């Protein structure tokens, strides 16, 4: 499933990793954790002027062509005012501007709003979340972004194309083989055959965790929103126990009606906390070379998750 090449570097080791299915690569340098770049959270909680807060969301956000917005629980869904996709929608997750925590129902309702909104567009959909400015969020108020285009993004294309080839060559789904491979590894975290979660072996970002779903398309997703939300909240708790609050999340789907042997999956990466010096956790390797430099070994992240689980169970 993956290749790992280890070489000495300075006083430690450097790993070059590659994913066989897609050719995706990264390099992991655990020694760089000693730089301690991720400082404590520093962000303003001021909600003045926020268009997503209750007093403004129904007057300052656009509507769908029929003049409507989608309301499910606390969530409100509407078209993106500044779209960068043929179909681009926004879902405000909660009425609170900067909540200390999210509930399963809040996140599940936001997913439901995205599903209903994205069904209005034909294409390859994804559901995405930039949380906090250091993860690219232009507004602190928590919100999802849904995209749907006539063609898949490069990441989705790699996995959809790779899944189809794997099914044709091996007569079985790549994702079933991957689950069997990962369940016996130190990277496996939790889950069952509906959704299972693992610290991805070739991370595209710091502490990447993936949840693989037993479905391919957005249309199949409706009954699994609470289960997906529950898993995401566990990952958010894990990140916060490590001192990081910002993150990026994407859920990738195949096009409706397709049968390419692809399984929809959720990818989450932690990002450096917002900080006064504006230090970033991505640089030329990530943005120009498309080969991330990662600090945390996926196997160490798996060990940490299970040790935290044991610690909490003893309380």
Summarize the structure.
The chain is of the alpha+beta class and 315 residues long. The chain has helices spanning 57-60, 104-118, 154-170, 174-183, 225-241, 284-287, 298-313; strands at 2-9, 12-19, 25-28, 70-72, 75-79, 87-92, 124-131, 143-149, 188-191, 195-199, 209-213, 247-252, 265-270, 293-294. The chain has a single domain, classed as HIT-like (HIT family, subunit A, 2-Layer Sandwich).
Can you walk through the features of this model?
- The protein is α+β, with helices and mostly antiparallel strands and 315 residues long.
- The protein has a single domain, classed as HIT family, subunit A (2-Layer Sandwich).
- The protein is 26% helix and 24% strand.
- It contains seven helices and 14 strands.
- The strands form two sheets. The protein has a ten-stranded antiparallel sheet with strand order 4-5-6-8-7-12-13-11-10-9, with helices on both faces.
- β4 (70-72) and β5 (75-79) form a beta hairpin.
- The longest helix is centred in the middle third of the chain and has 17 residues, at 154-170.
- The chain is globular and about 60 Å long.
- 39% of the residues are buried.
- The model has no long low-confidence stretch (mean pLDDT 94).
